[in-house]
Amino acid sequence: MPFSHWSAPVADAPVDATVRLPGSKSMTNRALILAALADGPALVRRPLRSRDTLLMAQALRALGVAVDEDGADWRVTPGALSGPARVDVGLAGTVMRFLPPVAALADGDVAIDGDPRARERPMGPMITALRALGAEIDDGGRGALPFTVRGGGAVEGGPVTIDASGSSQLVSGLLLAAPRFEKGVHVRHEGPPVPSAPHLAMTVRMLREAGAEVEIGADEWRVAPGPVRGRDWDIEPDLSNAAQFLGAALVTGGRVTVPDWPAETTQPGDALRDLLARMGAQVSSGPDGLTVRGTGAFQGLEADLRDVGELTPVLAALAALASSPSRLTGIAHLRGHETDRLAALVRELNALGGDARELPDGLEIRPRPLHGGVFHTYDDHRMVMAAAVLGLAVPGVRVENPATVGKTLPEFTDLWTAMVRPA
């Protein structure tokens, strides 16, 4: 059955909107893991409800944790972790990397699988690390999904060396469960630099807020064994999902405000303030939130995006519409995301008349007049968002499978249409 297509709305005038975003996926799934391992109940306030977070909640329920609706919140009551259980990770990196260390603490087998593309995403380092820490995993020698964690009710823990250059989630997954391991965990990274440092900072901060003892050094993290405190979590708006909305102000010469932008945060999306300003936006913070104003013209961007790779698709779309070339580097790891994002962006931008090429670790984009056409999205929510940005200025952009935004922002097309074509 062919995918449906969505005609991305063209902006006939500068946008002028306030866009209230749902909660951070990254914070929600970390809070769910910490609440599941805690010594008492927790309330996760204003969580994101999307495919990725619903899969995490269901995975924890399968292991014996109660995750109940409480108005707009989730109430999490820890239980004895047990199998047999089956877990579907979908295409969620946070679920496929955060859940296996928790499953190793269960008493019984936990079978873990996901979407076809999930079987291609880097999991070998996690499987090897868990075995080194004392877990038993049957992966048929694949080093990838699907596999079964044969939980024995406890994990010894201790020192482990891992190459986390493919994803910082490999380190975060080990750290989040580490307080419950008998010896804690001392993770050392060996290999090319770990991407997405802000997400590691988020993991460390939330562990400490839950009472865990965490020490960090150069490419190493140590979490001591001990209880995880049951506490309530307030989830910030998802700042990475602000990228396309704030970018719309740049493209149209308009104004977009995102309320409740935190004054201090570990979210990678906070880098948008600097990145969009470097492209020519006027960026300001105030009691109403973060506001971006476009001036009617904006230039390209030269930036190392290693720490904020998830912003790449929208920044690449902006670059294709800018007045000068862009060079986005430090993002070779995006080849192992929901799709090979570098190849996909080059293919789709060039199919609309653009001039993009892959670099060993990034993209080079030279602006050219673009035309309409089908923008394929490869089951990748960020590709839908990039296509929407292009559609603001390019008539006839038809976006394949817009429903894939359900991964992190199910209401995206409604929010986008309301911003571009207010009632």
TrEMBL record:
PANTHER family reported for this sequence: AROM/DEHYDROQUINATE SYNTHASE, PENTAFUNCTIONAL AROM POLYPEPTIDE
Enzyme Commission number(s) from the entry: 2.5.1.19
CDD domains in the cross-refs: EPSP_synthase
Gene that specifies this protein: aroA
Binding, 3-phosphoshikimate: 25-26, 30, 167-169, 196, 310, 337
Compartment(s) where it occurs, according to its Swiss-Prot or TrEMBL record: Cytoplasm
Protein name (Swiss-Prot/TrEMBL): 3-phosphoshikimate 1-carboxyvinyltransferase
UniProt-listed Gene3D superfamilies: Enolpyruvate transferase domain
Binding site for phosphoenolpyruvate: 25, 93, 121, 169, 341, 382, 407
The reaction(s) this protein catalyses: 3-phosphoshikimate + phosphoenolpyruvate = 5-O-(1-carboxyvinyl)-3-phosphoshikimate + phosphate
Xref: NCBIfam families: aroA (TIGR01356)
Keyword vocabulary terms for this entry: Amino-acid biosynthesis, Aromatic amino acid biosynthesis, Cytoplasm, Transferase
Assembly notes: Monomer.
Role summary: Catalyzes the transfer of the enolpyruvyl moiety of phosphoenolpyruvate (PEP) to the 5-hydroxyl of shikimate-3-phosphate (S3P) to produce enolpyruvyl shikimate-3-phosphate and inorganic phosphate.
Pathway per the UniProt entry: Metabolic intermediate biosynthesis; chorismate biosynthesis; chorismate from D-erythrose 4-phosphate and phosphoenolpyruvate: step 6/7
Family: Belongs to the EPSP synthase family.
Major location category of this protein: cytoplasm
Matching SUPFAM superfamilies: EPT/RTPC-like
Active site feature: 310
Domain of life: Bacteria
Location of the Enolpyruvate transferase domain: 13-414
Leading EC class: transferase
